[in-house]
Design goal:
With 442 residues, the chain is α/β, with parallel strands linked by helices. It is built from 17 helices and 17 strands.
């Protein structure tokens, strides 16, 4: 890895600040520590790009499969621990479909997988990919199942086969969807790599006995001209999975060993252990998990875990500030306000809806902080609430003179009433008390 001074020699030395750093030397220092990307500098020469390409590349290669808005990105991670910066690409979940199923059952299973959706704090959680497995050993059946799966949904596809011949026939049917070809090992590497190169698809490596053999397999695949690789470490137990994934991430990020600097695939299987493998993959560096089967009840906690792990810890999930009608609110309905922290907003919204009482919900911009945190940090003050009332034209739109405030910040009720000119009513301290409160509000 070049030092900051060696990198600085290849930079334009304009100190223009367009890379978001004040000087080229500061930018070089960030590049040397893998905290910036070379493309952030608009003036670096082609010679400089060529010289610095290796040093500026992320320690774990970015690999994409699928097409359009549904495409899945894996890798491109730069950290071992989330609090150091953040993790960029959430673990993708795929569910397997066997080509031994009749055609109509293939479609039905794919549609069932596609329909699993949960709403949580304003985000839709669900499965990301379909893995079609070559269980029959019949080229026509495998290709037919792949085509049926592709026509049944727009999710990215993983094609699972150890046969280059069957893989070529099936993958050529959906090459425009850029599927991930999973099944290259020591025996079929050259033929499988040829299929992947010809069709422009990424390829997953498997069958290695240990990390040394996997690094050797990756080097051979790269020597064929194939760059987009995914590694299946073949972990038989949770212990093996944890050790293997942790070693790959540390070798890639800390030691900058590019021989294993690729996304990791976990073939979880089915049953309770599959769920545990999925959870471990989310927490410890898995980029793609394939389940043979998994129920909605098992999937929901996995989705929530993934959402929590891959939320930037330095940037709270926020909703758009503004005035929202609830339960068909019309003129004269009371206004309640809360902060724009997503979890707070959706909790308050659900409790207002539960009351079935028409009301307006004013979302105040608190920079994503909860009510008490925002109040303590000076992000929720009478002045800020009044500003939110004015910017949303809340009084004019609602025709209301009643403003209900969270009970936890009741101490600012007097000042708020004075500044707003409205009748300020102190609401319950806990959101769960809103339904009863609104029904009794006169």
């Amino acid at each position: 890895m070049p030092t900051a001074i060696e990198i600085f020699k290849h930079l334009p030395k304009k100190n223009c600040g367009k890379c978001n750093y004040p000087t080229c030397l500061a930018f070089a220092m960030q590049l040397a520590n893998s905290k910036a990307k070379l493309e952030d500098c608009p003036f670096v020469s082609e010679e400089g790009k060529a010289a610095l390409a290796a040093s500026s590349a992320p320690p774990i290669r970015l690999v994409r499969f699928g097409s359009g808005q549904r495409a899945i990105e894996m890798g491109d991670e730069t950290e071992i621990y989330r609090h150091e910066k953040k993790f960029f690409h959430p673990t993708a979940f795929a569910v397997a479909v066997s080509d031994q199923l009749p055609k109509d059952e293939v479609r039905g299973r794919v549609e069932a997988i596609r329909s699993v959706r949960f709403e949580r704090v304003g985000q839709t959680l669900g499965f990301d990919s379909i893995a079609v497995k070559d269980d029959s050993g019949d080229p026509s059946k495998f290709a037919s199942a792949v085509e049926e799966a592709a026509s049944a949904c727009d999710l990215p596809l993983v094609l699972v086969s150890s046969s280059p011949e069957r893989m070529k026939v099936a993958a050529s049917k959906v090459a425009a969807r850029r599927p991930l070809l999973y099944g290259a090992d020591q025996r079929n590497l050259a033929e499988m790599a040829s299929v992947a190169r010809t069709l422009g698809c990424p390829m997953a490596l498997t069958g290695a006995k240990d990390l040394n053999e996997m690094a050797d397999l990756a080097a051979k695949a790269k020597a064929t001209g194939l760059e987009d690789l995914v590694l299946d470490l073949g972990s038989k137990s949770l212990k093996d999975q944890l050790e293997g994934c942790s070693k790959v991430r540390k070798l890639s990020v800390k030691k900058l060993f590019r021989g294993l600097g690729y996304p990791i695939l976990v073939d979880a299987g089915k049953g309770e252990e599959a769920v545990l493998k999925g959870m471990l993959a989310v927490m410890k560096y898995g980029s793609l998990v394939i389940f043979d089967d998994i129920s909605e009840a098992q999937a929901l906690p996995l989705f929530v875990l993934r959402q929590n792990i891959y939320t930037d810890p330095q940037v709270p999930i926020q909703v758009k500030p503004g005035l929202y009608p609830v339960n068909g609110a019309k003129e004269g309905a009371p206004i309640l306000f809360t902060t724009n922290f997503s979890l707070t907003y959706f909790t308050v919204l659900a409790d207002i809806e539960k009351s079935k009482v028409p009301a307006w919900l004013l979302v105040v911009d608190s920079e994503g902080l909860s009510v008490m945190t925002a109040f303590s940090a000076g992000k929720l003050t009478p002045e800020i609430v009044v500003k939110a009332l004015e910017s949303s034209a809340a009084k004019e739109r609602s025709g209301s003179e009643v403003l209900v405030m969270p009970g936890m910040v009741s101490r600012m009720s007097g000042k708020l009433q004075e500044l707003s000119g409205m009748r300020v009513v102190v609401g319950p301290k806990e959101s769960s008390g809103i339904p009863k409160f609104l029904k009794n509000l006169s």
